[in-house]
Amino acid sequence: QYQQIIYDWNDTDKDYPSDKTIHQLFEEQVGKTPDDVAVIYEETKSTYKELNEKANRLANYLRQISDIKASTLVALCLDRSEYMLVAILAVLKAGGAYVPIDPSYPDDRIHYILTDTNTKLLLTNEIYGKKLSQVNTLSIIPLDNAILQQQLLLQSTVNLEIVTNSTDLMYVIYTSGTTGNPKGVMIEHRSIVNRIQWMNNVYPLNRSDKILQKTPYVFDVSVWELLWANCYGTCVVFAEPNGHKDTQYIRELVAKESITIVHFVPSMLSTLLEILESKGLSSGIMSKLRYVFCSGEALSLKQVKKFQELLPNVEIHNLYGPTEASVDVLSYDCNNKNIQTVLIGKAIQNTTLYVLDDNLNPVPISAVGELYIGGVGLARGYLNRADLTAEKFIANPFQTEEEKIYNKNTRLYKTGDLVRWLPDGNLEYIGRNDFQVKIRGYRIELGEIENALSSYDGIKQNVVIAKEHKNVEEGNKYLVGYYVSESKLNEENIISYLQKKLPEYMMPSVLVHLKELPLTINGKLDRKALPEPEFSSGDHYVAPRSEVEKQVCEIWANVLGLAIDVGIHDDFFSTEDKVIINKTVITNVEEQLLSFAQERLWFIEKYEEGTNAYNIPMIFKLSNDIKLDILEKSIGSVVARHEILRTLIKENNEEELGDKQYQQIIYDWNDTNIDYLNDKTIHQLFEEQVEGTPDNIAVIYEETKLTYRELNERANQLANYLKQIHDIKLDTLVVLCLGRSEYMLITILAVLKAGGAYVPIDPSYPNDRVKYILADTGTKLILTNEVHKSRLEEISKQQIEILAVDSGKMQKQLSLQLVNNPNAKVKSTDLAYVIYTSGTTGNPKGVMTEHIGVINLKYDMTNKLRVMDNEVILLFANYVFDTSVEQIILSLLNGHVLLLIPNQLWLDKEVFYHYLSTNNVTHMEISPKFLEQCDLSKISSLRRVIAGGEALTDNSYSKIISNSSCEIINSYGPTEVSITSIINIIGNNNIAIGKPIANISCYVLDNNLMPLPIGGIGELYIGGVGLARGYLNRPDLTAEKFIANPFQTEEEKIYNKNTRLYKTGDLVRWLPKLRDLYSDENFNLTIWDEYGPTEATVGTCNSKICLDKDLTIGKPYSNYRILVLDNNLMPLPIGGIGELYIGGVGLARGYLNRPDLTAEKFIANPFQTEEEKIYNKNTRLYKTGDLVRWLPDGNLEYIGRNDF
């Protein structure tokens, strides 16, 4: 038997890549599957290549700014997200070892860890920077900082030279310590390489697997959740921060993302099983799930049996292992239907196990002893704790001669866990032999809590123990703190004091005052004599007053196993116990509080699909002098008196807008603050980019190519000319009337550099619209093309100076100007442009946009869209639409190529595809209806497409993705909020308009400006840095549409931030969990803004086309002539896209007092028949501006507008 338990059962040797580091394994996998998805976080996905390049950029940056050597400790204080994994990989690639810190830790604990590690470098989120700046020698790097993200884009994406070996440190994780301070466990690369290779050998992954990462990264289970997937070619899905506490969310995430592998602490598993059982949910909702791994606390037989019943097609495995032995060292298959006991199993590869007595002698099979662990998984020891390392890591007295030769299995770790061998070589867990406990997977030294309690003034003695809830599933322990003092202390103050010293999971759930601690006959603490905690509010007891309150109180008493009366104000659990206990209580409430009569009424309502059988109609005749306020109070009193009038049967548990949801939708979901270069202007960032990439191509238009230097110098020459000849000051409005060409970009940049703001006019605009904009802006200068100059002189009656920027004379004058950047001293809060949008009065309105909002958009879109190197961005939008600004800044402010598309080229799809493919376009933004007609697979270089300008429907999305594998982004944003304010990088076919971008807040409000709950449809109001200054010369409309923000926080008031909201007129609703906004139909289509002008100038015929929701407009009415013509007024064949012309008896006479516009829009009909000429019929056609095509069945299909 000695041979068996010491040597045979420890014969676990197996080859593994013992000379490799974790990041080497990851890099090898990147080479195998570069384009496979490696990470999913919310709606963001990153491939192996993208993840590796991000980590390489950060690793290179870390090496540049700090002297990172092998095993250098780098602290991380990050929320769960893709940044977390990027940071871990980057630290390892740079040569360091990471030290994870939970941002929710108390300041004292964080300060201790930073001091103990003596780290000089900390990677964090911006919001935690101030909290962590307490260590003066610390260099803090906020990973989500916009400036840093820009710096990282300049770093190399190539794998770094390896400076570490497998015996160097990989991480240091801090666990609870008996002294009152946590202790840092030092783990080497080879230990984790062995651990995850074992897992992949026993539970092999395939490329379709998805592993859920939900364990906080300060606990070592997170290590295999994070790295098993990415070292063996599958995908890791991140839960949202704090999502690991919400079992319902986890269940929904597993189903939504088709997750196949997940870890549960047994107590959390119980809650999942309870939810599945109580709601009658079948295992089909998690049909892709393959493996569930449990560890962290004892897994019971009852839990396993329930699991097998509810999830019969999923494997469950019990794992065991301390942090000091690299996560897990034993495993046990719990899938035998006849299982009688849940064991911790057998050793994993290259691990040895010994069950010893107090004298380090092996105990026989079935005898209880302490577990000692040996092998390659052992930690190096405790950081800066040589004494504790020597105590817990001892020399291995059972090392074989061969092991001595190869210096293997030299040490053992003393676990403190009591176990026993079973005859088949499995181990059974018995319990602890010290005062360490595990609660919900957290390993806790009770002594650390006792030390914190003893430091509180007035507490003489104390003891902390773990107890179990009586009527809750096994494993649901909670902590009770017993303290001795002269008199009962204010326990709320004690809890507040402890919260500053201990993490949340170590907080006692209840405190009990004692006059003295009970002792045994020999003077030791008698733990069995400690009284049961009482959860009642004592002197503040208030009895239940109604039947409902009585039922709820009884449920609480039953769940907690209380013999006392429960009052309505009793507060039982103030910390993490709420997660488990509240789920159990809620389940009971849901099952018990609906009466049979109520259920019957609900059933009848559902069965008859709406019935008024139980409605009692009453009619009251009101006199003219009725006091409505008194009537309202009277009705309110009746409603308040009768519960039934305030009763609602909720079919969806997420409908309430309580304090938590109010906090969520008003503040949490609007916590979008991210620092960026808010003192910069558009042209300043362009000039900085020119310095970085002077010889890169900036602009391509047909055969013309300009480098960044050439574009900048030509813009500078024009800007210097404008400053010399014209008195351009800050916010001076300069009108542009330009065709699509490189001159358009040169002129825009020149106006900004000179200090002005540009006002774009389309040369195809009717004369009256041009005249109105010129008068409204009061401009003194128009920059145009030579071909449009004479028309503009006629419209302006030569009262405005007009310069043709492409004329030979002007080009000669400009060649004499300096090419240096002018210094106009423009601020980010000065105007950048005024874009005119359609108005309900018939006249357009000028939206005044400042630089600051555009710069914010540039930084956030660059980060969110992961704009990479060598991008070619298509300028598709007409420059009179603000989408053009987004396309310009994403390219020219990031060093990419901006490709201008020639006019009308998009009408011939094959020519369109060829032009984009030839120029290697990677990014474009086009309306969904146009995209539907495109075969995006013919543009092989395309990486992403933004669908914007109008609602993206399910039908549209299905058509777009049917022939494309590129990334699709849904975007939303009115011109009044600096182009784009909400985006959704579409995943899992969720076509919601998405979440607000950085520094933008969104509110869904009713007519009284009150927030609506998740799912409630209301009007969207937008706040933040992107808001326009207002409407030019329209203070009335500005006041109506831009209102004071009633939700501004006190901090925002101090810094004068988020002061206003823009009233969009769009109906939306929040989606649960995803925090996405979903747009409903509304009579304010963003592609045309408002219908007023269209109705004012076209009449009902064109309105019929505009308002039709379907792509197929239909067949023409009788007595109407419908023609689809090209630019030469030639008819197009079936399937050909052209402009829609309408003729017939319904045509308007024209425009009142507008002969010019009438002549432009109502043309002579070149297809009039001889008979029609005789009877003077069908003499004219109306030019709609709409692009359509004939379908084979005679219907017309709407494509878009002919005014891009």
From TrEMBL:
Domain AMP-dependent synthetase/ligase: 26-383, 686-1032, 1086-1152
Keywords for the protein's UniProt record, in alphabetical order: Phosphopantetheine, Phosphoprotein
Coiled coil: none
Single GO BP term: secondary metabolite biosynthetic process
Residue ranges of domain AMP-binding enzyme C-terminal in the record: 448-524
Matches recorded under Pfam families: AMP-binding (PF00501), AMP-binding_C (PF13193), Condensation (PF00668)
Domain Condensation span(s) in chain numbering: 590-678
Cellular component, GO annotation: cytosol
Keyword ATP-binding: no
GO molecular function list: catalytic activity; phosphopantetheine binding
Family named by the database record: Belongs to the NRP synthetase family.
UniProt cross-references to NCBIfam families, sorted A to Z: AA-adenyl-dom (TIGR01733), PRK04813.1 (NF003417)
Protein name in the entry: Amino acid adenylation domain-containing protein
